[in-house]
């Protein structure tokens, strides 16, 4: 398959991220590597979407803190971004509604822009033209060649360093560059783009608990979008899927990451990281990156047993 015929993917992870751990970031990396190895997908972006404060989970610190910790955790990544939309809503949002928001956003702006914590999504959409005529759509002298789909998430300058862009699925699109001639009409090639929910096998197993998930939402999440599952603690994902009629129905939309990495997925556990912080356990460095630890200590988070 050529690059343009492969399905382009954005991975979306929803959760408390209370706090975000090294394991959460490893899930993104493992999922991307696996999808690339299948030869069918190109992962062009990752979204971390922390849950709203009104989720009501005991010990959940303010989204203000969780957003900053997430941003610190991904600050060195050139493809994973933190999106505050879910936190900025008036109330808690379902996973289904978060997926639909990002899908609708891409439709509305013919691209996907992932803002960082402090920057609203106001950056112009950037795409890849089909014609070969040089066009200065990037105002960054360090970018000497036209971007490809594989490079489109690269850092293209400080002002654009926190965006994720995809080529719009339309034949013609008016690109407005504030630093060039306005209204330049350019031709874009069409690509297939999907948002996939990234989760651990524990979330997959929760689909099997009667009444926990709205069945209509499950149909949309698994049937319309699809999910990428990173197994935790040698979970039997086939057994889990056989316990749910919806998961069985859409089994082809569920991709289970299979790789040779044998690190314990317990490092994903925010609960264990909080306990380590409360007990002054030096092993907290196994769970959390140093910038996140520094922020937690500076802000005096998770010090009390109450979270």
* Beta strands, count: 8
The strand line-up of the biggest sheet is 3-2-1-6-7-8
Helix-strand category: alpha/beta
Main sheet overview: 6 strands, parallel
Give the C-alpha Rg.
Answer: 20 Å
Helix content: 25-40%
What fraction of the residues are assigned to beta strands by DSSP?
Answer: 5-15%
Low-confidence stretches: 110-189
Overall average pLDDT: 76
GO molecular function: ATP binding; nicotinamide-nucleotide adenylyltransferase activity; nicotinate-nucleotide adenylyltransferase activity; protein ADP-ribosyltransferase-substrate adaptor activity
Family: Belongs to the eukaryotic NMN adenylyltransferase family.
Keywords: ATP-binding, Cell projection, Cytoplasm, Cytoplasmic vesicle, Golgi apparatus, Lipoprotein, Membrane, NAD, Nucleotide-binding, Nucleotidyltransferase, Pyridine nucleotide biosynthesis, Transferase
Membrane topology: Lipid-anchor
